[in-house]
Design a protein that fits this description.
By secondary structure, the chain is an alpha+beta fold. About 65% of the residues lie in helices and about 10% in strands.
């Protein structure tokens, strides 16, 4: 086992954590003021992304699939060793399960902070920081992940809805909507000087545009 390819089992799922997951998490937390804050941030990013992917994995298992989880530079992905045919509704449920798991974790964190015997942790500087990071990552990132942009979960849900409405597989419309939505989000991120987000979403716009061109030629 090495840092570059950390593998373990969790709730019966195979999990692999790539080196670049840690590198990007460190980069995103590089503006923090001290090593303890950075360590808290990286641990929370790891926990939150893992919980998100577990949401997909548990629903996938309930649908008879065999999920495996990979945490990589852009977040995480749950893929399936056994990938049975699914209805559009099942695909939409599978896509929403990840953000929902994060929202549930954020709700649990809020209840612990406000009402549990451990609420005193939030009175310490690092405790307040921990709760703030947990709420931000699981709520903020979860909402972003529902934007109708492939390959985000919102894009996967969009694809499922299009397939259900049209009664057939259609990749062109979801990719077209993804390009428009990604351009709008990237422009908004630039306006608010959120440069990393703008770059990230612009990359998704470009990737969807290339795929759209390929589909139209085909």
């Amino acid at each position: 086992m090495t840092l570059q390819d950390w593998k373990f089992h969790f709730f019966g799922f195979r999990v692999r954590v790539e080196f670049w997951f840690w590198a990007v998490a460190l980069f995103l937390g590089s503006n923090l003021s001290d090593p303890v804050s950075i360590a808290i941030w990286i641990a929370i990013v790891f926990l939150s992304v893992l919980v998100h992917e577990l949401g997909h994995a548990f629903v996938g298992r309930s649908l008879g699939l065999e999920p495996e989880i990979t945490l990589h530079s852009m977040g995480g992905v749950t893929h399936f060793r056994v990938n049975r045919s699914r209805s559009p509704l099942q695909d939409a449920l599978l896509g929403f399960a990840g953000p929902l798991a994060g929202f549930l974790l954020a709700g649990l964190v809020f209840l612990v902070r406000e009402f549990s015997p451990f609420a005193f942790v939030g009175t310490t500087p690092y405790g307040r920081q921990m709760f703030r990071f947990l709420l931000w990552v699981n709520l903020g990132w979860g909402i972003f992940n529902l934007f109708p942009i492939l390959p985000l979960d919102g894009g996967q849900i969009l694809r499922s809805v299009v397939h259900a409405l049209r009664g057939r597989s259609d990749e062109i419309l979801p990719r077209s909507i993804s390009v428009v939505a990604a351009v709008l989000v990237a422009a908004g991120a630039l306006f608010f000087k959120m440069y990393f987000l703008a770059f990230f979403v612009a990359w998704m716009a470009y990737s969807n545009f290339l795929e759209l061109q390929h589909l139209r030629r085909a």
